Automatic annotation (TrEMBL):
<keyword id="KW-1133">Transmembrane helix</keyword>
<keyword id="KW-0472">Membrane</keyword>
<keyword id="KW-0812">Transmembrane</keyword>
<protein>
    <submittedName>
        <fullName>AmpE protein</fullName>
    </submittedName>
</protein>
<feature type="transmembrane region" description="Helical">
    <location>
        <begin position="147"/>
        <end position="165"/>
    </location>
</feature>
<feature type="transmembrane region" description="Helical">
    <location>
        <begin position="275"/>
        <end position="292"/>
    </location>
</feature>
<dbReference type="InterPro" id="IPR052966">
    <property type="entry name" value="Beta-lactamase_Reg"/>
</dbReference>
<dbReference type="GO" id="GO:0005886">
    <property type="term" value="C:plasma membrane"/>
</dbReference>
<feature type="transmembrane region" description="Helical">
    <location>
        <begin position="47"/>
        <end position="67"/>
    </location>
</feature>
<dbReference type="GO" id="GO:0046677">
    <property type="term" value="P:response to antibiotic"/>
</dbReference>
Length: 293
């Protein structure tokens, strides 16, 4: 687990210090592998997609196993850093939020806001407080917390599996290559998002207004009547709005700042950083607990 924490910290530092490296996070090669061959039936395309994805995940696990404990674990650490870095993002969330906040005019702010949905949804993002908060949290789950959760649980195998499923389910670049299989991958993406989404929600409650978030969470499930153990992750958008609204209202701007798109987006960025720190602190405590025993 200590190696996992070190790899995460290295990736976070490199992402912040060397943002240009993000251009190497490119899965276009996967699209070429998945392109259907002339005369292939849809069933063959589904089998091909599953075989390619499974082969990549298995190969990643074999490489990590081969590198385990060699050269004092340095080779394994380097491999973990490379895989996590490639699976992070692919766009940097802080950079996309900063682009909206620092845009010189309204037109450019609206244009920059659309990048918050890159890799998450193809729908246009409305330029209002609710739309920006929801898009930011959805992006944070996909780009940051989802891959972080699966990396912490399963290592490089988990990170790669999460990113592959996300790409196949939600990236328009793969729509033609996988055809009707996309709905199956969307369900798989929801399954893999379920645990990190709930951990993100509880972390948000810790760093923001606990009562407002828990109340909004409970009201959402009561209104929809499906219970907590479903693949309906719409609660995250609801509690994100409740938490940010409460956080902004408690700040210097008071109630007057609630509903201001830029004020709420800026607070969203701060809150998401707090959540990231909580996750890192929990992983660090687990590492220290392992050393202590």
């Amino acid at each position: 687990m200590a190696t996992t924490l070190i790899a995460i910290l290295i990736v976070l530092l490199s992402t912040h210090a060397l943002p240009d490296l993000a251009r190497f996070r490119n899965f276009s090669w996967l699209r070429d592998w998945l392109q259907p061959v002339d005369g292939r039936a849809a069933g063959d395309v589904r089998v091909r997609t599953l075989l390619v994805a499974a082969s990549l995940v298995v190969l990643t696990g074999l490489i990590q196993a081969a590198l385990h404990r060699h050269w004092f674990g340095l080779l394994e650490l380097a491999f973990m850093v490379v895989v996590l870095f490639m699976c992070w993002g692919p766009r940097d969330l802080d950079a996309d939020i900063e682009a909206v906040l620092k845009a010189p005019d309204s037109a450019r702010r609206r244009e920059a806001a659309q990048f918050l949905g890159d890799g998450v949804s193809q729908e246009s993002i409305p330029f209002n407080a609710a739309g920006l908060i929801e898009a930011s949290f959805a992006a944070a789950l996909s780009r940051r917390f989802g891959v972080l959760f699966w990396f912490a649980v399963l290592g490089p195998v988990g990170a790669l599996a999460y990113r592959l499923v996300q790409q196949l389910a939600r990236s328009p670049a793969f729509a033609e290559a996988i055809g009707d299989s996309r709905m199956r991958f969307e369900r798989a993406a929801l399954i893999m998002d379920w645990a990190p989404a709930h951990l993100l929600a509880w972390s948000l409650a810790l760093v923001s207004d606990f009562d407002a978030i828990v109340s909004a969470w409970r009201d959402y499930h009561h209104a929809h009547g499906q219970g907590y153990f479903t693949l309906d992750l719409g609660f995250l958008a609801v509690i994100a709005r409740a938490g940010i609204d409460a956080d902004v209202a408690a700040g210097d701007g008071g109630e007057e700042s609630v509903g201001d798109p830029l004020a709420e987006l800026a607070d969203t960025q701060i809150v998401l950083r707090r959540v990231l720190y909580v996750w890192l602190a929990v992983i660090a405590v687990i590492v220290l607990g392992g050393w202590a025993t």
